[in-house]
Specification:
Blueprint lengths: L2 E4 L4 H32 L3 H28 L7 E4 H18 L2 E5 L6 E4 L1 H18 L4 E10 L3 E8 L6 H6 L15 H11 L3 E7 L3 E9 L6 E2 L2 E2 L2
Parallel strand pairs: 3-5
Antiparallel strand pairs: 1-7, 2-4, 5-6, 6-8, 7-8, 9-10
The protein binds adenosine-5'-diphosphate and magnesium ion (MG).
Length: 237
């Protein structure tokens, strides 16, 4: 039985408050980081000298989480361009293949055909990388991530990113994309929240289907750069 979820406005929860807090927290953190660095390098205390790099590392990790958060909530108008989807997929596969290889996962794609999409290229790539990385991390003992054309209409194309990883229960599926939702020991639970926002900003759609212990299929819909079919102000097809 197929379990499915459609992303709606889960982001509203994360909202503007998080952005404000993140922003405020950053400045004192920078001060603390500088101070630790200074003390760590000038002190005669062996313990402080030994542990200060770890403190700095942890501060940097915290800062990265905040950066991810801000990249999601801060209004950033996407730069939409006409780009070959096949080229984007090729680039993204080349970027994720090494991470797949060390996890015994092959990242593959079926020939897509020539479709130009209306997208922000760096943002689409970031989103696809997040999706593929999750697929790789869901595969425990080797497997495949496969990308293929799922559906094409007059104005949109949907591609599938499918993995044969551990899948998700209905409950897990509902939580994906919520801030800090993670089932991983070292996860941030921000990847899909950011991705959803990036895709939404370019008028795209993201949808997950999953079967526990069998795998997950992510359906990503993007706008094609063809002339749109407009009838009475309504888009058709
Ligand atoms: P993180 O990867 O840091 O955990 P994400 O937002 O990228 O955060 O993903 C949130 C959670 O969604 C993951 O921890 C995992 O439980 C689940 N998930 C995402 N993609 C998949 C997938 N392809 N297969 C199984 N579970 C997934
Ligand atoms: Mg992730």
């Amino acid at each position: 039985q197929l379990k499915e979820t459609v992303y709606l406005d889960k982001l509203a929860v994360a909202g503007q408050m998080a952005a404000a807090i993140a922003h405020e927290v950053r400045n004192p953190m920078t001060t603390i980081r500088g101070m630790i660095q200074f003390l760590g390098s000038t002190t005669t205390d062996a313990k402080l000298r030994e542990h200060s790099p770890l403190l700095i590392e942890e501060l940097d990790r915290t800062n990265k989480i905040i950066t991810d958060y801000l990249s999601m909530v801060k209004p950033d108008v996407p730069k939409l361009e006409t780009v070959s989807l096949e080229k984007v997929l090729r680039d993204v596969i080349a970027l994720t293949a090494p991470y797949g290889a060390i996890n015994n996962v092959e990242v593959t794609a079926s020939p897509l055909g020539s479709y130009n999409v209306c997208i922000d290229e760096p943002k689409l790539k970031q989103g696809l990388i997040n999706i593929i990385k999750n697929g790789i991390e869901a595969i425990e003992e080797g497997g495949t991530i496969h990308l293929y054309r799922y559906k094409v209409t007059k104005s949109r194309i949907t591609i599938a990113i499918e993995d044969n990883g551990k899948g998700m229960t209905e409950e897990e599926l509902e939580q994906i994309g919520l801030p800090f939702y993670t089932t991983k020991a070292k996860g941030t639970g921000l990847g899909m929240m950011v991705t959803y926002k990036l895709i939404q900003d370019m008028d795209g759609k993201l949808r997950y289907e999953s079967v526990l212990n069998e795998g997950t299929r992510v359906l990503l819909t993007l706008q094609l750069c063809t002339k749109r079919n407009i009838v009475n102000g309504e888009e058709v097809g």
